[in-house]
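Troubleshooting entry. The earlier prediction with N-hydroxy-L-asparagine gave an output that would not parse, so I re-checked the input for stray whitespace and re-submitted. Clean input:
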Amino acid sequence: MKSNRRSFLRLSALAVPFSQIGSALAHGPVKKPIVISTWDSGQIANGAAWPILARGGKALDAVEQAGIAIENDINCCVGLGGNPDRDGYVTLDACIMDEKSNCGSVAFLERIKHPVSVARKLMETTPHVFLAGVGAQQFALQNGFELEPEALSPSAQKTYDKWLEKAEYKPVINIELEQNKGKGHGPFAPARLEDGSFNHDTMGTLALDANGDVSGMCTTSGMGFKMRGRVGDSPIIGAGLFVDNEVGAATSSGQGEEVIRVCGTHLVVEFMRSGLSPEKACKKAIERIVKPNPERAKTFQVGFIAINKKGEIGAYAIQKGFNYTVTEQGGAHKISNAKCYFS
Ligand code: SD4
């Protein structure tokens, strides 16, 4: 059974001034500002983005703050609190893209707390789009970011020690576990499970601001226990994130290799350009991933979320248990169990 259940959390203190929503209503059914993020921990990301959007600020600033908030959360699945690679090092990937198609990405970045901000700095101050590894770290240090200690967070260390007992690379199917519901804030699940592990490693945020501009970001510690040097979809423009201010934006979570194969978020945005709703566009992109080998697709997860210029949102995943969080005028909604291919 497909289910699409909404929970609702009032955040009335952060309501948008009427003067700003008035113009949206006057020009037809555009819902703005609005911000959406992957997973239940999207409430942390959206919570940082919303005050900027609510006072009429830029979507780009909002999504960067969303990334910073989630990278700051040592108990979360992204940033330096995340799971390490199989050699015991946390390596981070992130990207950001704005309404003018400016974009910046960093990959295989070590010991830097805010890869999303390094990506923005790269975007705004250099002619380049993508830096990796030591070069990305060097760029960060030259721009005032600090070198953080190498040690794993206590919960990541615990999870890694357990993983070392077998040391098998078996990516988990990314889901939000029903039994964790309500153990975070309100109806939301916490990013880390009680045994210290977690079921997803990536946060993507998309925002439409009061001015009608779209931006997005994606930040991750990548698949836990990956090979050293492995980079997933998250920092790749067109795979983990794509923004086109004429159409909308999309971001992804799940097994990055599968998203890279089809340039997943670019595909979602192109499907929206051809007239599909965000949900239908996400669905078609998921079908593109599944089609070559439906049997194999049973073994992994990919979920897309998308937003269009009218502020319509949607999502679709391969497996059950893909949640996302929406914050708009009036509050934050958690959307549990996005529609999925194997329902
Ligand atoms: C990756 N897409 O590195 C990321 C992992 C992820 O929830 O989304 N985990 O492939």
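This one parsed fine. The radius of gyration is 18 Å.
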